[in-house]
Write a structure and sequence with these properties.
Distance between the termini: 99 Å
Shape: rod-shaped
Strand order of the largest sheet: 1-2
Number of domains: 2
Structural class: mainly alpha
Number of helices: 15
Helix content: over 70%
Amino acid sequence: MKNADLHSEIVNAIQGVDQGRLSESTKPLRAVLKKQFHTNFKYEGIIDPNKLDNVVVEMHKTMDAIKDHIPKVTDLDVSTQTEAEAAVVVHQTLESTLATMKVNVEEAQKYLLSTDGFICQMLEEEVIENIYSHDLRLAVTVLRKDVVDHIGAEQFDTIVTEVEDRYSIVKTETGIKASDLLRLQNQRDRVAGYISELSAQIKDVEAHVISAAEVPKKNADAFHSSTSVLYVLSCFPILGFAFAIGILNQVKKFAPAFRSSLEIYQKLGVQILAKNETISKVILILAAVLGFSGIGIFFGTGVGVPITASIAVSPIVVNIGLPGGVMILYLITWIVLSKVGKTIQLYVNVN
């Protein structure tokens, strides 16, 4: 069969497919396959349990949405199977016919003089009449008749006629591509991988839920560790009150946790209260020891005399002022720590 006839068969086969229905079946499947779910949750370091609970709720909503979405995808996959497979069969037939057309072209290559022209172009009647000498016309005319008898008049005319797409290959390929009969099946081919991704996302979100449950403990451990260092530093003279202020700021920042009913935060509050009370007593002892004892040592050893010699200040002022200043700073530290204790008591249910 000639390529022109085969091309007509392909055109008829494409027209026999309900393109509108195929497109309508493809759209919803393509739409559900485009659906993406947000699974990047930020919850590390959230102190407020209510905010953390809100994030966990969003995690569960996401998991439910994914689980609800999977059946929608599989249902569309099943419902479009028959139509998609029918279109695939038509497409395969078209490709087979196109392959036959290309074989026909290979057969026609036997008549090529070169890649630039055909022998039959040398046998056109107009060429014979106007180009060849009188002596050659008869022989060429006989040759022309022999070629026509061998390949047929229709094939001869096809070869001789100057047509860009002589064998209908280009327009056939264009038509098959434009018909896009595999568009529904191409979407169905994505279903398995898409569902696999959704299943993996469910597992990821489940892992996030587990990690989120560990956040309060991480927060409590971090708070206990940092405040323990600050409590030690608050015992140092002169700058101890600055570290005590740091503890107060941390307690205020941690207020949402202490206000909650979570057992781990309640226990933490009780522990910090106990440590705060202990360190406050230590601060008072240090204030007394370094303050009053310091004054006695300064007066007893005369430490203030060489100091006052260069600054013209009474030794009494130095002997009382320096130890007294240290004691005052310790008392300021104690006041700040008292504020810490009262603040925690406002947040924590202390029995």
